Amino acid sequence: MSDEPAIRTRGLRKTYRSFTLREVVAVEGLDLEVPVGGVHAFLGPNGAGKTTTIRMLLGLERPDSGSIRLLGHDLPDGLEAAVAKVGAIVEQPRFYPAFSGRRNLSLLAQAVGAEKKVDELLAQVGLADRAGDRYRSYSLGMKQRLAVASTLLKDPELVIFDEPTNGLDPAGVHDVRTIMRTLADAGRTVLVSSHMLAEVEQVADTVSIVVGGRLVADGRVADLVGAHARGAVRVSVTDPVRAGEAFERCGWSVRRDGDALVVEGVDDPVEVSRVLAREGVDLRELAAERPDLEQVFLALTGAPRDGQPQGVGA
């Protein structure tokens, strides 16, 4: 079995001309690898080059330089053969508002000779009970599920989602996440660009993070998160001020989080309880802090800790 990734780019570069005719670099020397199978998250702040990269993978944009290999085909020469094995949602899908979900999907199926798969796909994305309803009556989540069904008509090896959960309520986000996981578990490769970091961490196996059009980190999500673990514990005590001063004398970093203290730089949580006992401060709660993908993202992109990361979506 070949170890070749589903997607490989080398030195990928793309520039545009602004309204002032100034050259704007969207992607700069990007080396991206997406392994076969599983869910791969593609993350980065606004202007990082994620959507531009996806458009180049699909042949919608031509790179200035660099190479792309997609599903065993070198682009652009092998674009037709490669894209035949790809399903993608890059922009807001367009369907006929007055037609039912089934009718919309049937029209697309006729174009690729997949009419027999319509009912199967509607059931797969959870639209069987609403297939006869007009598209205009669908919620945002239902519209996104119909879009997913349309990408599966060709039985693709690779499915690409660019911001698939934008505007969805929690139930819709959960539905899309479940669909992505189901596709990956069935042997497909799923590439997802998203700003919903907590949702991505729940579903993604591997991740690439780009900043300024360059790759700054990639690998398995668990490995990447583990590499940024800082040995932190969360404690709730009777005297936070006294406890904080004691922790700082130990050389640990301390910050408030509501009524609790987060102590960073601790090799063994037992040491925290020993310090508190020595100071005569009662311990109410102690728990090891688990780093998450959002913390890794903030550290790598320099986004502020408070509030949402700025522009993680484009």
Task: Describe the overall structure.
With 314 residues, the chain is α/β, with parallel strands linked by helices. The protein has helices at residues 50-57, 79-83, 101-112, 118-124, 140-151, 170-185, 197-203, 221-227, 240-249, 269-279, 293-301; strands at 7-17, 23-34, 38-43, 65-70, 73-75, 86-89, 158-162, 189-193, 206-211, 214-220, 232-237, 253-257, 260-264, 283-289. It has a six-stranded mixed β-sheet with strand order 6-7-8-3-9-10, sandwiched between helices. Helix 5 (140-151) runs parallel beside helix 6 (170-185) and helix 9 (240-249) packs across helix 10 (269-279). It is globular, with a radius of gyration of 24 Å. Mean pLDDT is 87; it is low at 304-314.
The percent range for helix content is 25-40%
Query: Which range does the strand content fall in?
Result: 25-35%
Low-pLDDT runs of 5+ residues are 304-314
According to DSSP, the number of beta strands is 14
**Main beta-sheet annotation:** 6 strands, mixed
Number of helices: 11
CA(first)-CA(last) distance: 35 Å
Could you state the order of secondary-structure elements as H and E?
Answer: EEEHEEHEHHHEHEHEEHEHEEHEH
Strand order of the largest sheet: 6-7-8-3-9-10
Shape: globular
Mean pLDDT: 87
Overall SS class: alpha/beta
Rg over CA atoms: 24 Å
List descriptors.
314 residues; alpha/beta; 11 helices; 14 strands
Describe the SSE topology.
Blueprint: E1 7-17, E2 23-34, E3 38-43, H1 50-57, E4 65-70, E5 73-75, H2 79-83, E6 86-89, H3 101-112, H4 118-124, H5 140-151, E7 158-162, H6 170-185, E8 189-193, H7 197-203, E9 206-211, E10 214-220, H8 221-227, E11 232-237, H9 240-249, E12 253-257, E13 260-264, H10 269-279, E14 283-289, H11 293-301
Parallel strand pairs: 3-8, 3-9, 6-7, 7-8
Antiparallel strand pairs: 1-2, 1-4, 4-5, 9-10, 11-13, 11-14, 12-13
Helix pairs in contact: 5-6, 6-7, 9-10
